[in-house]
Design goal:
By secondary structure, the protein is an alpha/beta fold. Helices cover 36% and strands 15% of the residues. The protein is globular. It binds pyridoxal-5'-phosphate (PLP). Pyridoxal-5'-phosphate binds next to helix 3.
Length: 360
């Protein structure tokens, strides 16, 4: 059996050391002779775990003190609804900048709750490229401006946040969270499903500036009310304790590995290697403009769908799993999140070279 590298877009590969630690303490967590998933979420030991998780994440991601950190349920898509419920008052409008599948879905969901303006920020042309993002003149007319810094399906990343002046900037960071340095103070709210870079599915991170709390509509379900969740340690109902625990282990792991600068350095090295190979190859094609190439989701195809299918099948046999592109786009997609080691990218490139030679 070859060594397996899992390029799944999400749920995605997790650090092996985190899984080993979870395995090691599965039956006897903190000397309780029971697993972490069988104890009360309100017990002192679990409360200690979530406090440590928050402190570690704050340190790792340089989150300023005037931001609350929430761990919620319902995934990123739950947040598509929670955001307008909490931030869009009856008389205001929100602006959605759309650059692909996820940002469009976010806008569509928000429309259920209020008035939305939508601006497509992808340029027309043969490459996927994001337009100039200067919105400071109009942004302040809106309760908030929403965008998606990394479109997971197409592999389009926006490295510099839109300029919205003093307006509230909201970002769906599901597939870019903790992958590179960002200035949190530029954002009003950041959210991410955990299953790409933070841990397993079932838990959702929300980082929200304190002054945005307490404005939710009256009809907001209490589990979606940020102010209530902040007040109640994100425990208004029973939280997904095991997923939270795995996120806590993941934060600890990355701090030990050297923190965000080390994560960013590794991610850049992995992406550079793969894009350099794509650029030199005539066999594979990537349609994203250089300035918007995702560090996390690298899309490519042979421009022949039968050959793409053969690639995906043979790659799987060689231990390179889940390279099939999303169904709306076809082709291939290599998700190279934080937990994907450089060796995985090297193995992928070696396979791509061999496949190109055999099939050109
Ligand atoms: C995966 C993903 C989502 C969906 O996340 P769920 O937790 O399944 O709701 C939303 N937005 C982006 C950018 C994603 O990558």
């Amino acid at each position: 059996m070859p060594q397996v590298f899992n390029f799944s877009a999400g749920p995605a590969t997790m650090p092996k050391a985190v899984l080993e630690k979870a395995q090691e303490e599965l039956l006897n967590w903190q000397n309780q002779q029971t697993s972490v998933m069988e104890i009360s979420h309100r017990s002192p030991l679990f409360m200690q775990l979530i406090q440590q998780a928050e402190a570690d994440l704050r340190r790792l991601y340089h989150i300023p003190d005037n931001y609350k950190i929430l761990f919620l349920q319902g995934g990123a898509r739950g947040q598509f609804a929670a955001i307008p419920l909490n931030l869009l008052t009856e008389n205001s409008k929100a602006l959605y900048l759309t650059s692909g599948h996820w940002s469009k879905l976010a806008a569509q969901e928000a429309r259920l709750f209020g008035e939305i303006d939508e601006i497509n920020i992808l340029e027309d042309g043969d490459k996927l490229k994001v337009t100039d993002l200067d919105f400071k003149d109009r942004a302040e007319n809106y309760a908030y401006v929403h965008y998606c810094p990394n479109e997971t399906i197409s592999g389009v990343e926006i490295f510099t946040p839109p300029d919205v002046g003093r307006a509230v900037l909201v970002a769906d960071m599901s597939s870019t969270i903790l992958s590179r340095k960002i200035d949190i103070s530029k954002f009003g709210l950041i959210y991410a499903g955990a299953q790409k870079n933070l841990g397993p599915s079932g838990i959702t991170l929300v980082i929200v500036r304190e002054d945005l709390l307490g404005k939710a509509r009256k009809a907001t379900p209490v589990i979606w009310n940020y102010a209530v969740q902040a007040e109640k340690d994100s425990m208004i109902n029973t939280p997904p304790t095991f997923a939270w625990y795995l996120c806590a282990l993941t934060f600890q792991y990355w701090l030990q590995e050297g923190g965000l600068s080390e994560i960013e350095k590794r991610n850049q090295a992995k992406a550079e290697l793969l894009y350099a190979y794509l650029d030199e190859s005539d066999f594979y094609h990537n349609v994203v403009a250089k300035e918007n190439r995702s560090l996390m989701n690298v899309t490519f195809s042979t421009q022949d769908s039968a050959l793409d299918a053969k690639f995906v099948a043979q790659a799987k046999e060689a231990g390179l799993h889940a390279l099939k592109g999303h169904k709306v786009l076809g082709g291939m997609r290599a998700s190279i999140y934080n937990a994907m080691p450089l060796a995985g990218v090297e193995a992928l490139i070696a396979f791509m070279q061999k496949f190109a030679l055999e099939n050109a």
